[in-house]
Amino acid sequence: MSSQKEQRPVAGNRGYIRQKKERTIDIVSRRLAQRYRKEKRFKLYGLFSIILSTVFLAVLLTSIVSNGYSAFFQTYIKLDVTLESTMLDRENLGKSDFQGIIKQSITKLYPEVADRKSKRELYALFSSGAAFQLRETVMKNPGLVGKTIPYWVPADDDVDMLMKGHSKRGVPENERRLDDRQLGWIDKLVDQNRIEKKFNVTFFTAGDSREPELAGIWGAVKGSFFTLLVTLALSFPIGIAAAVYLEEFAPKNLATDFIEVNINNLAAVPSIVFGLLGLAVFLNFFGMPRSTSLVGGLVLMLMTLPTIIIASRAALKAVPPSIREAALGVGSSKMQMVSNHVLPLALPGMLTGTIIGMAQALGETAPLLMIGMVAFIVDIPGGFTDPAAVMPVQIYLWADSPERAFLERTSAAIMVLLAFLIMMNAVAVIMRRRFEKRW
Amino acid sequence: MEMKKTVSLAAFLLLLAGSLSVIGCGSKADQPGKKDEAVRQTGQASEGAQSARGYISIVGSSTVYPFATVVAERFGKTTDFKTPKIESTGSGGGFKLFSAGVGVEHPDITNASRRIKKSECEKCAENGVAEVVEIKIGYDGIVMANSKKAMPFMLSRKDIFLALAKEVPAPGGAEGELVVNPYTAWKEVNQNLPEIKIEVLGPPPTSGTRDAFVELAMEAGAKEFGWIKALKKEDKDKFKKISHTLREDGAYIEAGENDNLIVQKLDANADALGIFGFGFLDQNSDKIQGTFIDGVQPAFDAIADGSYPLSRPLFFYVKKAHVGTIPGVGEYLAEFTSENAWGDEGYLTEKGLIPMPQEERDVFAKAAAELTPISCDEL
Lengths: 439, 379
Known about the structure:
By secondary structure, chain A is mostly helical. Helix content of chain A is 65%, strand content 5%.
């Protein structure tokens, strides 16, 4: 600083005086420029951070979407299925040989394929689930028996990957999942307009499967739904009751301080610990059934409870004391004061906290690992005691599967999970906007 | 004003609850014709606490998981029974759950990528799991592979040991002398190998694949040194320490349990080698190529006829007491041991399972049908 002062240019007599004792305004204006520069830099740092995080987010989202959007479409192949009444037993439709019917219609398309090995390769182009889908269709419409219908069956995942361009034709034959002959058969389907990419309904209606073309997210969505319902039903009332008691009724003493510290600590405990607790208490001690959304919900309840209590207490604290005093002043009891005045005003904040807690619980896998919810479950859960998986678990399981078609389904499942999370957070924001009261 | 807001808030909550319950409905009709019969509590089960279970519960190895799930799914679709629930807990974790007792709260079947240990078998007997049926289902190959962009590697098990062990016999040193692994490039390990940095991506210690790799490749490689082989008899612990400890200086990279990730990393780094199950090589043969081990490239036939050295048997174990009490256990065994599933052209081979020879299949199919229990003394 001082060296700068000496270097200042001097102009004339008056300058000489100024050099002796600098005017305050000069110092201020010089410093001001510095301060402006500093502020500009400070703002730039912030801006840079925002840009950086936006770029990361964009990269993440683009990679997920670009990997996953194709999973919303699935390659289907049109077969002319003849439902001969000789092959179908009208009394016992479910037991009929639908596999045989599908194979028959495939062979009709390719009469030139005769020997056993070639037939096996030919059948491999079609999903093994085709027969089960046909069975369902016919069971629903028994009137179809005896007719020939055009029927779209899902293609095998190898064909699907080829049609979507995820696996290439150019590589040598022994390095491909499909050999030259199979490619020829597919070309024939393309020529006859029998192969088409359609919206993948199965993905949104089916449970898990080891065949990518038959795997769906619905089982996991329902598992998540049942689990979160248990979590919500328990943690919301318990959390709010605890918060109201601690904030409005509890005396301020060592015991309540101790409880408060513990609640704050619990909110920071790694979630896997709650899983271990659930395993010890709910499964081993109470003997509840493994892998069910009931136990999953209980474990996640333990996890979200501290979050809800803390958010609810903050919401209660934000209600000005004047409201309480006024209520008490006109003669209401403490309970009336809380339930008629304080609680309605604090509720939006409590709900926001609850929804954020729920969103957290929705994305959690670690505690569920311990209680057996990381499992292959095909049947869609119909209740709280059915074995169930949840969405993040489904993503984890698919990410670990060798079939390449599961890669895109993993990304698609992540998109579905993100959609749910965005929805829940949006509800939280809307509620805050709509019902929050400011003083 | 205040009143109005509270009312609209309540209405909003009602709407939310309503929409949620709509999602919840429609579940009833999902499983037409599935058996819902109650399961009788088996002898040892604790009374009352546990509700009945109408589905098979399976735990165990993550290596058997891809095969067991396929069978389970087919079983669920082709029979009136519910689809079995399968947890991938690892072989050891599976045995722990399996041996805890008999009754609906314990799993019926555990999958394993190794044979049951004597201690585990005795634990079963201790907890009342008296009769355990062992079914071998086939073989799995462990492969090392690299990107197709590079040349395939030709390694011997000795090379693998020298490249990956934490401590190796001193080059040119006396017998019994160990040094911290000095090799950084494959060429230093073996003159005939390329001048490429040693970089191997493999599974972490919790993985059964790693256990098998260490046992089949590293141990066999270590035995190429006469004095280490002699050590096995004299000082078993020291032998294990030498042959089972992988280096931690960055040449062996623990890449997590996710084999897909290893495949992606290999695709990006042409110099690296990866270790995983044969199924992943089979599914990604356009991107990666198997490394020749002792002159044999991992291929379906080479593993099936035993000429490829890194292969191991896969098993599952069933509680005899649960057959007949949990609906579908016997039928599941029948499905798994049918030619249609584990045969030479069965659907499991499409998922990468290497079938057993016909005679062996017959033996275990018979064991499954007659529920022949194993005895712990034989192990």
